[in-house]
Amino acid sequence: MINLQAPYLLFLGDAKDQLAAKTAQGIKDWRPEKCVGQLRLWDCKATLGLQDMTLQEAWDKGARTLVIGVATRGGKISAEWHDCIMEALDIGYHVASGLHARLTQIADVSKKAADKGLDLFDVRHADGTFECGSGEKRSGKRVLAVGTDCSVGKMYATLAMECAMLARGMKATFRATGQTGIFIAGSGVSVDAVVSDFISGAVEQIAPANDPDHWDLIEGQGSLFHPSFAGVSMGLLHGAQADALIMCHEPTRKTMRGVDYPLPSIEDCMDLNLRCARLTNPNAKFIGLAVNTSALSEAEATTYLQELSDQFGLPAVDPVRTGVDALVDALASC
Fold first, then answer.
1. Domain range for residue 7?
2. What range(s) does the D-glutamate N-acetyltransferase-like N-terminal domain occupy (predicted)?
3. What is the CATH number for 49?
């Protein structure tokens, strides 16, 4: 399992626009205490609103990992970044990337890191050893976010719940299963890079036995109805052994992201997820819905959330507009 050393210097490189820096933005939004500053090349078009720093300035302020927080076309590591990465290693930084291309496959970068005893983290890849899932009951409690599609707010919902639960003095830990979540949490496994036989076992590993009153909030991935990503979603359901499920949804989407398949109904999605979750936890149940209503007006969002709540007899929230207190309250019944 990946474990990153904080604090971070967030590298935005030559990001072409703000969206290209979404990984770094997520880290800054959810773990600002881990972020010393940002490093931008001269032609960078994005900013996080953090102090611009050189590698040495950030090191002197305590930064220990250079995080490449910018996305590139094809997930490539730009040749324009090479000198900066090598300089970071010379100073003593560990370097982490969430791109498809691997730092460890750049020969001189890999050699310098090895010579200096530093770590290169390719967090989008899972190179550890995992066991097959056992399905055996383990102590502690778990929440898993599932969705009608990918990219509907599963990470955001679980992070918001962790924040709200910790504010109440509850025992809660966000468990990351994707590259941005790993940067935010500082640890985790990118499950979409795990060999399929071991996905459920990897989830058991990142959410192990715990105190009876401790909640693991497991970041969901994909959708059981998505023809590209259903396998990962199923592995998460079985490995999580979730006591509580959160259904995540974006109400204006008509087709599934990246494919020409219609979005499933919320009813069908809840029914199938619940039946699959009950293989490893017969007591699994939905305790609420988290909806991204950003494309709706305030009035439309309020009406839609109330209609969902009435339809399913469960709290329906938008983690941004309404917060997630109603979901945390619902955990008391699990």
1. 2-122
2. 51-125
3. 3.40.50.720
pLDDT tens per residue across span 269-328: 999 999 999 999 999 999 999 999 999 999 999 999 999 999 999 999 999 999 999 999
Dist. CA 233–CA 217, nearest whole Å: 15
Report how far residue 181's alpha carbon sits from residue 174's, in angstroms, rounded to the nearest whole number.
9
Number of domains in the chain: 2
Q: To 5 degrees, how large is the angle CA 309–CA 311–CA 314?
A: 40
pLDDT tens digits, one per residue of 20-73: 898 999 999 999 999 999 999 999 999 999 999 999 999 999 999 999 999 887
pTM exceeds 0.70 for this model: yes
CB 223 within 8 A of CB 256: yes
Q: Residue holding tokens 């800054």?
A: 28
Contact between residue 46 and residue 18 where contact means Cβ atoms under 8 Å apart:
yes
* Residue position matching structure tokens 């010393």: 36
The last residue of a domain, from among 61, 88, 122: 122
Residue with tokens 């076992």: 201
Q: Look at residue 129 and tell me if it is in a domain.
A: no
Residue 251's closest CA among 220, 295, 287, 309?
A: 295
What stretches of the chain adopt beta strand conformation (E)? 2-3, 8-13, 35-40, 65-68, 94-97, 120-122, 141-147, 171-175, 187-188, 214-218, 244-249, 285-291, 316-317
